[in-house]
Fold these 4 entries.
Entry 1:
Amino acid sequence: MSHAFEQQPRESAKAFAAFSLYLNLGPQRSTAAVGKQLGKSQGLMERWAAKFDWRSRVAAHAAHLALAEREAIEVTARGNAAEWEKRETELREQEWTLRGELIEAGLKVLGKFKDGSRGATLGDVSRAFEVASKLGRLATGQSPDGENTSGDKLPALHVEVTVALEKIYGEPEVAAPPAIVDVQTVPALPEKTA
């Protein structure tokens, strides 16, 4: 697919070179500056600029660069999301393994406590089971207090993706929720007669 900022049909190599110079001059570009650098008349540069629509081609080039930048940001965000998903899975596996080890150790200590052996208190056993329970809940997507948090598992990733999307599409417009007003009927006060 040919882009508008590439050499056009019936555009000579010299005319395209002049356009390329015009494009690369940046925001301060002008046909006069191109003519001066190429040693050509400004009139010739203006004719080429009109005939080959240099302004639209510059705009097409800017749009192409913006699209490429957005796509690169999206690819980066997807890659970061995949990496965070992998890290989360590894952490959950580690927590699940530790949970099992803590339960096993807690059961051994509880057995010793039951048979009167020394070495651990009931408080130690209780703490081991409490930590094991918290690790188990975290590993299965719950908060340490047992609430399900599966909708917001990766707040850091959410922030990263939000920043990338805001960079791509601009600041989101958030509509304020409508206010709810609770109105009670109050009986009217009797009027005073003087």
Entry 2:
Amino acid sequence: MNYTDKVMDHFQNPRNVGVLKDADGVGKVGNPVCGDMMTFYIKVKDERLADIKFQTFGCGAAIAVSSIVSEMARGKPLGEAMEITNERVAEELGGLPKNKLHCSNLGADALHKAIEDYRARRGEAADAKKKGSGPAGCCCPYCEGPMEGAEGLCRSCHIELEECPVCHKSTKAGEDACSHCGAKMPPA
């Protein structure tokens, strides 16, 4: 498996590792399929991410993703940090092998959950559904192929997708648990 120099640098020298004991928001995600677990801690000042730390249990790609997400988000306004996507994360790292792209989902998801937790603690209504993250989104989370129809069928790998009721990301239809957040999926 070939990783870019940037992935290797962030894996071997991760930035912003740790815990913020008095965090304003905490976001936890995990993928039961691969075992990766990420927790992001944020401090907010004037609606900007003043500090961010993470703890990650997982492969080198998961650690590199957590590190780069923390750097991409630090100092950004909350709205701009919520626009960090798995595609932008993978791009920033110079690419990830296809079988490791799910790690970029986890990093962006953990950051978004931390921001949503911050907003919930303040009594703000968090967006329940991120734009473009449902089954009719632009590309398949497994092969990055184009999606078609409301049912969420990938034109490239022909995997049928459905929306997770918890994280609202597309996951393979008929699975017992969401491949992004691990939530139990409703029976078909």
Entry 3:
Amino acid sequence: MAKSESITLVKEEVLTLGRLVETTVYEVTRLLKGDRKADLDLVEKQEEEINKLCLEIEESCVDLLVERESSFGAREIRALVSIPLIAAKLERLADHANRVARFASWAMEDEIETPEELAAMAASVYHMVQELLLCFLTDSPSKAKEILASDNQVDYLHDVLSKKLLSDLGQQESARAQMRAQFLFCARFLERMGDCCTSIAKRVYFLSTGERISKCR
């Protein structure tokens, strides 16, 4: 099999992984919006599949790099080095999403109203994941920059919600204080999901151009 074909196959595996993560984040968004048709079981089922596929991608890249008869160019080497890191970030993103999904499902079962900022953060991250898949598929440096800039919305919502929840935390009764703490954890996980998206966007930019890029503000 030609070198370019081998790398294309690995990139297709990353897209498959990315689509699984996209579905996971979509279900998290639905759960945070209180949609009772959202599927927590699907999120948990996909977690194992995502972990397995991430390892397979890493092994495929290592196998290609250690083939003595292969002489890859700079761009191909960047791809083989970057792809396992991208897969690992997607896997980490899904881990965070799984934690948020479990809390959101529990809150919905107990009829606990979640802050609207959490659903808005999840929706923003979901859009970032969609754009990431397109960015990776098209190898687009400009799209990578757009994704970096869009994380500002996630950070903004995180700051707004954190200030709101912490403003009078010490004056709340124990049960409400604990609930607010759970909301804060969820917000932090969603903020980290946005960070994972920016890390992947930076890596795609490097894969495409060979240059490093800092987060856009």
Entry 4:
Amino acid sequence: MMVNTLSPYVYGTTRLGDESIPEQERIETALEVMNQDIWIHTCHKYGNSLDILCKAFKKEPTKVPKIIMKIWGNTKQELIDGVKENLDRMGVDSLDMGQLCIGGEFAESLAEGGDAVTVLQEIRESGFIKSFVYEVFPWTSELPLKALQNGSLEGIIDGFIFYLNPLQRFAANELWDEIQKTQFPIVALRTVSGGPVHKLRDIPGFAWVNYLQERAVEVAPIFEKSGVPTWTEFCVRYAYSFPNLKATTGSTSKIERVHDFLKATENVKPLPQNIMDEIAALQYRWSDEVDVKAEPWTM
């Protein structure tokens, strides 16, 4: 499975699309990432990040990284056309891993082992999109759970991809339990949940939504008790405490922060079990009380 070839740290390109940052600075960050020989994660909705990547790729065409990209569609042609349009913007011919952002009839068909399975298999075999991971949110977990239980994902989907950090575990409890029971592969998003836990807790407006500030209040004492020196290391060690984790993804515009992530993902040690148990208790409660009841895209 291609998911087994992921770099331990995957660079998220969200900040490359932030036009408040000088373009040359963003290109230099992209070039530094390319020099590290790591995967990247991108999407056409991240501002003009694809254009920044294209400029960086033209400067170093032998160092174009392997790419995970969000993809949408309910038919084979919709999936292919959307991917081709975005690859063309980057000057790239094929996609290493498609993050399936699907719902409705296509997701139902995949869960039932229907036509969607054939569509995805044909795309994989063509080599245009070499592999797939399935995006999960708390409010979309029902069909991915059904697909996993039915065996519909075998040979088609390499893993699930969702927010996974001490403040966010965006697979609903029943799906999470099944993922851990089967040890189905995971790619984690949003490594540090938007920033250091003390800033999320203490600085008004630093957390973009109130629930993150409230969760930071509960997690900060656990982080402090752990003795881990930095929030980045704590979050990376949290994610890698799950044996089925294949990579964790974090975004930054700063080259020094890229190196922080790289350092944290070298020789990762799992967090102590008592620390993991405390976080797990919080996350099971948050999932039932808040996450699965949230309006889509409000978290």
